[in-house]
Amino acid sequence: MAWFRTLTQFSVTKSSSIRPRNTNPFPLPTLASLAQFSSAPTHETPPVTQYAGLEPTKPGEKPRVVVLGSGWAGCRLMKGLDTSAYDVVCVSPRNHMVFTPLLASTCVGTLEFRSVAEPIGRIQPAISREPGSYFFLSKCTGIDADNHLVQCESVTDGADSLDPWKFKISYDKLVIALGAEASTFGIHGVKEHAIFLREVYHAQEIRRKLLLNLMLSDVPGVSEEEKSRLLHCVVVGGGPTGVEFSGELSDFIMRDVRQRYAHVKNYVHVTLIEANEILSSFDDRLRRYATKQLTKSGVRLVRGIVKDVKAHKLILNDGTEVPYGLLVWSTGVGPSPFVKSLDLPKAPGGRIGVDEWLCVPSVEDIFSIGDCSGFLESTGKPTLPALAQVAERQGKYLANLLNRIGKAGGGRANSAKDIDFGEPFVYKHLGSMATIGRYKALVDLRQSKEAKGLSLAGFPSWFIWRSAYLTRVISWRNRFYVAINWATTFVFGRDISRI
Fold this sequence. Notes:
Layout: H1 2-18, H2 31-35, E1 52-54, E2 64-68, H3 72-80, E3 87-92, E4 96-98, H4 103-107, E5 117-119, H5 120-123, H6 126-129, E6 134-144, E7 149-154, E8 166-170, E9 173-176, E10 181-182, H7 190-193, E11 195-196, H8 200-216, H9 224-230, E12 232-236, H10 240-260, E13 269-274, H11 284-296, E14 299-303, E15 306-309, E16 313-316, E17 321-323, E18 326-329, E19 333-334, H12 337-341, E20 352-354, E21 366-368, E22 373-375, H13 388-407, E23 432-437, E24 440-444, E25 455-458, H14 459-472, H15 476-492
Parallel strand pairs: 1-8, 2-3, 2-9, 3-6, 9-21, 11-18, 12-13, 12-18, 13-14, 20-22
Antiparallel strand pairs: 4-5, 6-7, 7-8, 10-19, 15-16, 16-17, 23-24, 24-25
Helix pairs in contact: 3-13
Function: Alternative NADH-ubiquinone oxidoreductase which catalyzes the oxidation of mitochondrial NADH does not translocate protons across the inner mitochondrial membrane.
Catalytic activity: a ubiquinone + NADH + H(+) = a ubiquinol + NAD(+); a quinone + NADH + H(+) = a quinol + NAD(+)
Family: Belongs to the NADH dehydrogenase family.
């Protein structure tokens, strides 16, 4: 062991010779360094009169593309951008993309939450490693189109967090992909008492509430009426999201809850409320099949319009009162108040108006894609549905367009006026799919409701549905997670522990 003692002695001697004897290895931060993180100016610090932020790009630097949003459209755009030609800056209040077609499965434990969340840094690695590319956990508060500036405000969480920090970002090209928000149609009490199903934290809240009600209903002394209310799950909205969640929930009740909560199994019920017909965009035969299968699995279908929502019950337009323990709202989407407030051309319905190349006319270097945008009436094109495949195709198209502009020398601000944008964006519908639980699904491959095409239902459709979405999950990591979750659930059932 003589060689080891010699090596140790050499290491100690060398390390001690590198570090000065009186140097503190953990120096305390100075007051000057702390001042920049202060949430409010002190009497020694003058008020901040200018925002911090990213200055305009200089000669020799790559042009900067600023993307607002991290949904299907924005993430597909960032994935396809040529980062050798552009710096990419993403501004969003969430640092991941949600694979929304599988979100309903996480509410009942079929999938884990991380299986449907893809970090932005994995979608576009340049954001993590390139010096001029960034991700900011912030929200956009304003756009100055004349000066090519975006005004932002950091996102904070909790009452004890720092005050939001405001800053500005200069852009060469701006892509607005802010998505949409759930429509409440102005119904009183929806925002206070209902849970939407659009984000991972929505699914987490649904799962928490569902399992909590199951355990509370099993406590001695709870009345029969209260048990029925606690275990009554109401879904408002008969579109694909509402139907898929109802199907997942009924399957969860039939296969897992009835085995592990035998004392209250007869009190668990699911009600789906829709003003018209469920899955209105699907083939008539598929709609009838879905209605039959949902009813067979225990889902009660009610046609009606919600008039008011209270803490433990909702009221329909005919005066019927429906008590509930869990209320999930899934009635479509519309533009957010911020999108409506922007001083930009508007399409029908309040969306940001774009031309055939997804550009916002009358302003330079601004594009809009996804659920927040729509074709202007002057284009003669109809407003596209708020679907993931629409947003994804727009993101892919715009990435190719911006890459072409960059190669032609038009990446800088105000430098793309004379560049030919090429072919306009054309959308072709690839079909619709929806699962209804119990190894059954619907596949409608028609390009429109009036067109003819292939439509399937039953177990083959369920297999196609799972196979298609497994291949559409963005990363191999999440594909592995989803496949393992499905296999684990099939063998052992869903996890019903409340963590």
